[in-house]
Design a protein that fits this description.
The chain is of the alpha+beta class. The chain is built from three helices and seven strands. Helix content is about 30%, strand content about 35%.
Length: about 140
């Protein structure tokens, strides 16, 4: 019987502990690890991965594989910076056709601005939505 009890117990340092004793001994370690995990998650920095951002500008290029979906677009922002976006795999379909390649090319031809709502994943810009933007009002001299 003693061998059976010892088989079910855990040897810690030089004494045998029951299951309850093992739980009691490991509980502080588990709590410390949990607190550390929360602290690391909370102090992870300013990682904007997955957060939705937006940029407004003019479409410079449109790449498409069909008449209904674009593959990528290039937008020149109001500050002159070029952004290349790939269509996000989970981008919702646009029932109005606002993100159809033909409509996007019309924006490129006419110089009408767009607003691209996007997120960054693995260093790649993924366009979630593209909407018509209001043209910037320029003061008259």
């Amino acid at each position: 019987m003693i061998a059976d009890v010892r088989a079910r117990c855990y040897l810690t340092r030089t004494r045998w502990l029951s299951y309850a004793g093992r739980v009691k001994a490991l509980l502080p370690c588990f709590l410390a690890a949990t607190v550390c995990a929360f602290v690391v998650a909370a102090c992870g920095g300013d990682d904007t991965s997955g957060a939705e951002l937006s940029v407004t500008g003019l479409i410079v290029d449109v790449q498409a594989h069909s008449l209904t979906e674009y593959d990528s677009i290039t937008v020149r922002s109001d500050s002159g910076e070029l952004f290349e976006f790939r269509r996000a795999p989970d981008a919702p379909p646009d029932p109005t056709g606002g993100s159809a390649p033909g409509h996007l090319r019309l924006h490129a031809a006419t110089g009408a601005p767009v607003e691209v709502i996007y997120r960054e994943e693995d260093g790649e810009l993924l366009a979630v939505r593209i909407v018509d933007a209001q043209p910037a009002v320029r003061p008259t001299p």
